[in-house]
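The following record pairs a protein chain with its ligand, 6-phosphogluconic acid.
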Amino acid sequence: MKGDIGVIGLAVMGQNLILNMNDHGYKVVAHNRTAEKVDEFLQGPAKGTNIVGAYSLQELVDKLESPRKIMLMVRAGDVVDSFIDKLVPLLDKGDIIIDGGNTNFPDTNRRVAALKEKGIHFIGSGVSGGEEGARFGPSIMPGGSPEAWPFVKPIFQAISAKTENNEPCCDWVGNDGAGHFVKMVHNGIEYGDMQLITEAYQFMKDGLGMTHDEMQSVFIEWNKTELNSYLVEITSDILGYKDTDGEPLVEKILDTAGQKGTGKWTGINALDMGIPLTLITESVFARCLSSLKDQRVEAEELFGKKESIVEGDKQAWIEALRQALLASKIISYAQGFMLMREASNENGWDLNYGNVALMWRGGCIIRSAFLSNIRDAYDIDPELSFLGSDSYFKGILENSMSAWRKVAAKSMEVGIPMPSMTSALTFLDGYTTARLPANLLQAQRDYFGAHTYERVDKPKGEFFHTNWTGKGGDVSSTTYNS
Ligand code: 6PG
């Protein structure tokens, strides 16, 4: 009997996905560039299963049922291209290559188009959930050649996480790089969620002077509210984790955040598309700032250490902080969905936002109860332009407003940096202001560069230039927006 699917790349994600597929009754052919890895896997975790090994790409191809489905679980970038180049001559028309790595979506656009010319189908799929997700049910976000989906769907939906109603956290996202795009936004939101949690932690630790056990209890309580999520849950575990000397391990970890680039891509894409994705972008910059450790240490000496004590009723502050975190989280998701909407329109992807929320409901790093509400919001209005306008989310934003402002103002007053929570509030204030000061900005542009402006008392699209100084002349520059 031939194999149902081949997987190339036996690092932890690849191995766990294979084992997951095997658990669901699929025969998997496993290949790795180094033969020892194949042997180690077959004699180790894959022992006693139906998994078979392949020591060359030819052997892998020969052992697969047609149309062949070959999933790459290798490092994103050149390695993917190099495997594609080696595989293509061995494949038949109609065969399917799947890239399950964290690939930047323009690369997937390019690969789908290039392989189409050769009659090979290509799927670029986000896979989220880390090692455990891969083993027992990840969130899977596939996009690319739609013709390939019916062949891959049964396997992917079988191995994916399921919601509480047993719906698979995997569905077709859209053409080209849509799957990898949605995974990129997932990761951007992951950056935002993580940053917001760390800001709450710093407010509790430095502002309210709370112990780690106290903070752990708060996160445990928060996890029983609308904030219920995987990231809040692991945060409570982390805060309670003691090092061998009985002290909280988290305080021994160097405060410089790493990043592999997906959050940065999200921010760059938002800039390219002109979407104010402020919270995620602040979260990326917060990681960048954290990595300037030596400079920060010097600057603290230079400026003096801040005493960031927050006075007042501790319980009231904790509740205010919870509301600020929840409201900020709504803004982060609202911005993320705005970005997806713009990309969908621009690329003709026809993204289904309710389905995206469903795919993120389980298995992935940002999984949370909250995503069910997002799904409901898009079920009610599939074209919702701002998540915060949905009645459920609007209610939370309005109810949290005063607590959110208190926390943001206090953080500024005592000097606790909360870039994501405060920028979220600033965004909402801007978004809900019918008239912003951009009129003055337009005047400045016209003053120094004759860039022209539109008038409130004239139809849109009519441009005016004023000779502000009497010396600049009346010739305007061309009007275009990037
Ligand atoms: C996931 C994660 C994963 C990501 C890591 C590390 O969905 O399982 O998003 O894909 O690579 O979380 O990301 P950073 O190193 O950029 O923090």
